[in-house]
Amino acid sequence: MLRLLIILLISVAFGDVNSELIRIPLTKFKTVRQSFIEVGTNTNIINTKYGPCPGNPVPEVLFNYMDAQYYGPISIGYPPQTFRVIFDTGSANLWVPSATCPYSNVACQLHNKYDNKKSVSYKPNGTAISIGYATGSMKGFLSTDTMSIAGLNIADQTFAEAVTEPGATFAAAKFDGIMGMGFNRISILNVETVFDNMLKQKLVEPKFSFFLNRDANDQYGGEMLLGGSDPAYYTGNFTYLNISRPAYWQFKMDYMEVGGAKFCNGGCQAICDSGTSLIGVPTALLGPIQKAIGAKKEGGLYQVPCNETSTLPNLNFSLGDKLFILEPRDYIVNLTNSVTKKVRCISGITGIDVPWPRGPFWILGDIFMGRFYTEFDKGNNRIGFADVKR
User: Where in this chain does the record put each Peptidase A1 domain (predicted)?
Assistant: First the structure.
């Protein structure tokens, strides 16, 4: 009875949901992309994992980390415990570090940790869970608690308390955990996604959108809007594509053309993944695509002379019979060595093979989403792209 009284008091404290848009300004950390790419990979650490009232979009302002990892704040429990999470459309589970993680887990100790003993709204579950990533596995157990994001309070959200984070690479990451925005079909243990829980509780309309700011000199990382889109960020109309398999945000791509060479000719499957930094292509096509660009492999990375980037060809993606064009300034990444200050210009395309039944598919990550405002429309089972205002 005492616990029930406390929960009732929490509900009163939260009050009614604000009907106005809520915008949370965040600080963007200085890029440290170099420290990850120097180890010999062209991908980020999660590349291969595989307000409001209804009708009023709820914006969640994002950090831009490594010019690739966009994250923002959520809170879990009461009193609230705050975490920075990547909003990842390529996965479907929410996890944050657990206060029960061992002291030997350096990555865990360097991040905010959820302590269920300090939350009066916590509900135990205890089911073991493991989620695989390229650098290792997140291992932990399930718990249920109240969650808050951008002023929206979601009751009874089940999530994972991570006891082991996936690899030492996470020790340097500025985010604490990951909040999956994919479909429930790819949720490990079929845990209800945060967005589905929002919809069930009628907190937002069934769509969300991303503006990812690619200006490395701007402290503002962008926004994720829950419940709609913001015309202030894009021009023209959306081009909508039907979701071909509601697991990842997957759709048909007509083809991709670069330097007169066509790839994915006749059509192929692609996914839009905010948790992937770069553009992922089937490994067999990586060499030919880099050759068409004019990039050469040096030290494990495909590079181009920095003084020639303006002469490189565009990447032309045909989606819904419309061309979406990435210019060299969009897909070439400038890396500055923190010691020598030498600048290298790296191709933002990487090879990745996702086996059947999940794949094969291409991955349009943050490089693509930074150029095209993206709306994820779950109510109509579609995804939309529009030109970002520059």
Answer: 70-386
